[in-house]
Amino acid sequence: MSWTTTTLGEVTDLKRGFDLPASKRVSGKYPVYSSSGKTGTHDKYMVEGPCVITGRYGTIGKVFYSSNSCWPLNTSLYSCDFNGNNPRFVYYLLQTIPWSEYTTASAVPGVNRNHVNLHKVTVPDKITQDRIAYLLDSITSKIELNSRINGYLGTLCESIAAKACSKPDGALSDICIQVTDKTSFDSTDIETYVSTESLLQNKGGRQTASSLPAAGKVTCYRRGDTLVSNIRPYFKKIWFASNDGTCSGDVLVFRANEVSNAAYLYSCLRQDSFFDHVMRGAKGTKMPRGDKKQVMNFPIAFRCDESDLAVLNSVVEQMAMNDAKSARLAELCDALLPKLMSGEIDVSKVDLTQLNSHLSDC
Predict the structure, then answer these.
(1) What residue spans define the domains of the chain?
(2) Class of the 3-123 domain?
(3) pLDDT by residue (tens digit) across 59-96?
(4) Are 150 and 319 in contact (CB under 8 A)?
(5) Which end of the chain has fewer CB within 10 Å, C or N?
């Protein structure tokens, strides 16, 4: 196993992405990436995969990977040139870059690619790169599997809610409230704070927030509440809270009037028809926000069949368990990453077959 010190630009040359106004996008099979990740699709692509993408302006430090051809937006930096290195290894390498050292101190943070391409990195031989990427992929693939399973389970929840609401006899305000309890920003915790940025698009749940508020008030939420981003509702960001915590004022917190209806409430709010309803009352063009009063007029069925409610409770509980497993695996991956990328852990001594066997039980 041999390691070489070089520059990031010699490993993979990061380039600026391409303009593509939302008004000119045509839904297609090619993913579109911004600095915060996948933001839709287009019928054309600008670069062939595999491709690594990270933020140039806006959200800095998050790294994304596209196996297929895609369109990186101009708020991102991308590379498809790996100079003989393992593309997945490069993806993990970018996660170890101290992006804050290359970020401009302005209202909208930005990264100068010419500066970051000069960053010194130490990389191993190709065989070691392959083993490191395989080990980390074994963990992240399990996280992705849990996410896909939760997607299927979430669709099941929506189906049950749609059946119950096919003959609405009430409004959202009949079964829940919008939580307005506030506390000071200095009581927030990075593990439980939810921002609009930390809620994932297309009903993907949540990830750890990248930062905490530095002033003002935040909203308090409880385990069993449903949190929905009120900015750009068409992104369909929603999460069923598995713990108590705090969130941004731009995140709506819905609490069922009856605890037994929490899973049913979440399922109703997951429906595309709910987000369509919010958009019909949204105000603003560039960054529309839902009307908090209009949101509560969403038509629903006041009650859900008892047998269906039992299924919803079981499904939502399983989704929470999958999220908890993924969180533990993500912590493991975060702990291993710097040790593997520095050579502190000799990956040649890791039994990758045995590792996969253990992960299959997670």
Answers:
(1) 3-123, 158-309
(2) alpha beta
(3) 889 999 999 999 999 999 999 999 999 999 999 999 99
(4) yes
(5) N
- Order of all β-strands in the sheet with 245-247: 182-184, 217-221, 245-247, 193-194
- Cα three-residue angle 337-338-339, rounded to 5 degrees: 95
Distance of CA 53 to the CA centre of its chain: 15
Which residue bears the tokens 């921002």? 195
Q: What CA–CA distances, in Å, run from 1 to 4, 67, 90, 94, 136?
A: 10, 27, 18, 21, 18
Name the CATH architecture for the domain at 158-309.
Alpha-Beta Complex (3.90)
> At residue 304, what is the residue type?
C
Helices and strands: H and E segment counts in the chain: 9, 19
CA 116 to chain centre: 25
341 neighbors 92 (Cβ within 8 angstroms): yes
Q: Could you write out the DSSP letters of every residue in 92-134?
A: HHHTTS-GGGGB--SSS-BB-HHHHTT-EEEEE-HHHHHHHHH
DSSP result, 138-187: HHHHHHHHHHHHHHHHHHHHHHHHHHHTTS--EEGGGTEEE---EEEGGG
Q: What is the pTM of this model?
A: 0.81
Kindly list the distances between the CA atom of residue 88 and the CA atoms of 49, 82, 109, 312, 320, in Å, as whole numbers in the listed order.
12, 10, 27, 38, 29
Residue 168 has pLDDT above 80, yes or no: yes
Report how far residue 113's alpha carbon sits from residue 52's, in angstroms, rounded to the nearest whole number. Answer: 14
Name the one residue in this structure whose structure tokens are 């937006």.
Answer: 73
* Other C-beta atoms lying within 10 Å of the C-beta of residue 206: 22
Decide if 169 contacts 302 (C-beta within 8 A): yes
Domains 3-123 and 158-309 share a fold: yes
